[in-house]
Protein: Serine/threonine protein kinase
Amino acid sequence: MSSNPFENQVDITKSKLLQNDSLVSSYKVKQVIEDDSVSRWVRVLHDISNHYAIKREKDLLIYLNQFKDDFVRFDEIRKVQFNYLQFFDFVGKRTLQEKVKKTGPLSEKQARHLLENVLSGLEKLHGVGFVHNNIRPESILVGKDHYYLFSMDHAIPMLTSYESELLVGDQRYTAPERMNGQASEASDVYALGCMLYYALSGKHIYRLKPNQDRYQQLYAHAFHSMSKENSLPYFWRQLVIWMTQKQPEKRPNLADLKQWLVDQVVPKFIRDEVIGHNRKSSETPLEDLANQHCLFAQFKKANEYEAEGNLDSAFNLYENGAFREYSRAENNLGLMYEKGAPIKQDYFKAMNYYHMAYQKGNPYAAYNLGRMFEKGLGTSVDLKKAFKLFQFSALRGHRPAQHKIGSFYAEGQGIPKNLIQARFWFGLAARYGCLESENSIKKLLTASL
Structure:
């Protein structure tokens, strides 16, 4: 496929690359509509494996269109081979990060305008039960007279779920409680506080870098205090301290922040707080976080133990995570019971843990539970149930499940045979590195000759 995603889009006459990334690129394009030519901002999604998340984002964007003063209008979405193209009205090409880098930190007046705009958008988003989950300078689009909160691809429901447990990539704006799988209004407030510090100073609140070790970034959120607090204007300093409290219950809610814009008053405990100066990095951030009972860190430490062959230590950490209803630990504990190492094999317990994790939306657990029904492990064979579980997992981007769905369609297991669907699912899994699916496609092509 051509590197130009608009090559065969006849209504697109011009395109200019604004940002290029392995997962998402953005363009400014000229689109012909009837006899007119309009500017559009287009986000090109290069990873389309998670159908569920892409559809949910589309539905959310359509819902947010009714709030035209708060969000960039979403116009349409197109599938072009292995890309999705999201079309938006063009309101500006510069992010807050780019603006600050080019023209310097915001004035207090500009920061107030930024806060007002983002709060208004968050009210609408939180009102429908979602957290943005990715507030950072790169996620604010600077319009002519407005700061727009965009990048809804990370937005998730305010529920404790598998999705709220994931911490992938750059974590410079991640609230501490996210390490325990909690995503709430308070998590967005924390990230907004970190972003306000950047907007007013041009620096990260903990001086973190994008390419810094993820565990060091998370350690800073758990333990570090604000850097050079006196670089912020007095009232803004108090606000950011309030917004970035380590305990979510101590942070302001959106109503508190709107009131602060009126009177600039913060609680007494914030006014009396003495800022510490703990900015020392850790030589063992993962171990330190695990020792503080952070579920994400304990899970990752258990992964390390398991890879080293220390199954007893891994089992203990997974069991602790499962007790606290962490779905990734529940799934891995289920695998240990299924395999019979380091404890006695117990298919019933394995299925029970898989099911608990599946109920929280864990696609790995859904796949593993599907295998149990497919093979009749601890239960009778039920290919229809297996297919539904594999489908749940496949729609959420799980490669082995996508291959399984292709195989079920190719062989007519539990569902009518459908070679078109088989080729689609094999093709999707192969696109993202599944060698089994590549071989299955070759077999289908050979059989059709």
In short: The chain is about 50% helix and 10% strand.
